[in-house]
Design a protein that fits this description.
Radius of gyration: 27 Å
Number of helices: 7
CATH architecture of the domain at 71-145: 2-Layer Sandwich
Helix content: 25-40%
CATH superfamily of the domain at 71-145: K homology (KH) domain
Length: 286
């Protein structure tokens, strides 16, 4: 079957759709059916062949190529989104609802408008929906999202000086734990390992596996070991340069390759205090 990878405007994730008799080129705009109704998307790749065995089951088809009228209407409704956002924000304050409005998004044909919001718990917004439907004269959908999704929509600059990963290339959120920061010898201060969303930075997971692979089989920090320069204790790891920093018994620090180190520490059973400390710190954020 012929398939094509598509993206939705303003989104990073790539989706796969099958093509029947349509002639599509890269960056062509198309209409597809989604679980939230018809949407505009564009071809991220040229069409290509895929066997039925390789293709995911129940692969959705491209409905049609978008017309010039579709694109004009989509732009007209996009320009109305700030006004709809302002109206919704005003009505939220009027109804005194404990929610934070993030964005407003019209369907390309104006058949629906979705309001994205965050809240600490469940919010009864039934009166708000009726109010908005009366004022905006279209179907209203309220969608509660998490703080990570909020950062993905609004964007921003991270501590690295670059745009948020979630707002640029990151297609899905992976679980991140404080243990990843600990394994990489980073500060465990939440203010230093948290992103703009207030959650642990997604980039903690990028190199975590590399750190674990390098540290496997090495003596832990503070344990006794022997190298060519003498006997000492592991001070820290220099993962980037694939070296281990050792504090010798005379107080001098030396650098050694992992193959030149002999572990002199004796394996000990983990104490209950150590287990409790790890359990308390090894929480995971989805």
């Amino acid at each position: 079957m012929r398939v094509v990878k598509v993206k939705f405007p303003g989104k990073n994730k790539v989706f796969l759709y099958k093509i029947e008799d349509l002639e599509i080129e890269i960056e062509d705009m198309m209409v597809v059916e989604t679980d939230r109704g018809p949407k505009l998307c564009y071809a991220f790749t040229d069409p290509y062949e895929m066997s039925d065995q390789e293709a995911p089951p129940d692969l959705p088809p491209i409905s049609r190529i978008a017309t010039r009228n579709d694109l004009i209407k989509a732009e007209q409704y996009r320009l109305k989104e700030p006004e709809a956002y302002g109206i919704c924000l005003q009505r939220i304050k009027s109804h005194n609802l404990p929610m934070k409005l993030v964005a407003a998004e019209y369907a390309f044909d104006g058949s629906k408008i979705t309001f994205y919001f965050t809240a600490d718990g469940r919010v009864d917004f039934r009166e708000l929906v009726r109010d908005l439907a009366h004022r905006l004269r279209t179907r209203i959908e309220m969608l509660q999202i998490g703080v990570r999704d909020e950062s993905k929509i609004t964007g921003g600059i991270g501590v690295c000086g670059r745009e948020f990963c979630c707002a640029t290339f990151l297609q899905k959120f992976s679980p991140v734990s404080i243990k990843m920061a600990k394994d990489q010898s980073l500060s465990l201060n939440p203010a230093k390992v948290s992103g703009g969303c207030g959650r642990l930075m997604c980039c903690l997971a990028y190199e975590h596996e590399t750190y674990l692979m390098y540290r496997k089989g090495l003596p832990k920090i503070g344990k006794r070991c022997q190298c060519a320069q003498g006997i000492g204790k592991v001070s820290r790891y220099d993962i980037i340069n694939e070296r281990v920093i050792i504090m010798l018994e005379d107080g001098h620090e030396v650098s050694a390759a992992r193959d030149d180190i002999k572990d002199l520490s004796q394996p000990q059973d983990q104490t209950e205090e150590e287990e409790e400390e790890i359990d308390a710190e090894d929480y995971i954020e989805e």
